[in-house]
Amino acid sequence: MSMDRFPVGQEMDVAYPNFALSLTLLSGTQLRFEIKEGPFARSEIVDIFVVPLGNSIFAVSWQEADGATVTNVQDYDRGLIHSFATLPGGQFLRMTGAFTITRRADQVSDDRPERNKALVMEAMTSLFQRRDVTAVESLYAPDYIQHNPDIPQGRDALRTLVAGLSEEVHYEPGLIVAEGDLVAIHGRIHGWGDAPQVVVDFFRVEGGMLAEHWDVLQNEVPVTAASGGIPMFDAHEGVKASDRLRAVGTA
To answer: 3-state SS of 31-46?
Structure first.
């Protein structure tokens, strides 16, 4: 991860167990904090040093005018700040607080959607192309929730399903979209039913694993010369969507 993911311009309210403060990320080298009440009440702009740790996590450290030193581990995936502070008198504080964003960053800095799309793509191809039972353990949460009434709950049921798949089962991924912790993937699966089926799978990601799943399936209806329609599924649709997004970004 690079510094371009640091959410410059973002304002947030942080609730620690014993007090609350507001943080404004002014730049990659400065922030402003404001503690409105209590024994630590004050406002200050400090010079900061930021180290990207990966997966939307940053270590942010600074020294305040009174000599206090602070290191924050800011986790933007989980909405938490782990704070470690040494006060001028030597008192050491360890605190974890949830934050609420009150003003968005100047530019989008959330890289979860891309990571989550890669996770879903790996899961769908591991299970329904390679029929790799071992992938269930590493990609799906222990309390995995399944909304398909024909498939029992949990990872054990998913392992059993994959182990019993016919060699005729093959999945083709297409368009994939993501926002926050949700991913939707459009695809086509052969060998699951009597005819190829077009499917939309929805996943919720939690803690870097697939935690919940919904799906909608429909038998593929072939395009005929008389209908003059457009196919329900195009194996290259995901690539085409990426090209469109790149074209919009460069326009």
So the answer is: EEEEECCCCCCEEEEE
For 176-235, write each residue's pLDDT tens digit: 999 888 999 999 999 888 889 899 999 999 888 999 999 998 988 887 777 677 888 887
Q: Which of the following CATH numbers is that of domain 3-103: 2.40.128.20, 2.40.70.10, 3.40.50.150, 1.10.150.20? A: 2.40.128.20
What are 79's two structure tokens? 């909405």
Pick the CATH number of 112-250 from 3.10.450.50, 1.10.260.40, 2.60.120.260, 3.40.50.2300: 3.10.450.50
Q: Are 11 and 101 in contact (CB under 8 A)?
A: yes
Number of Cβ atoms within 10 Å of the Cβ of 122: 15
For the chain, what's the residue count?
251
**Residue 92 contacts residue 86 (beta carbons within 8 Å):** yes
Map tokens 């195009």 to a residue: 234
What does pTM read for this prediction? 0.61
> pLDDT tens for residues 227-245?
677 888 887 887 655 554 4
pLDDT digits (tens, 9 = 90+) for 108-118: 666 778 889 99
Nearest to 8 by CA among 32, 36, 34: 32
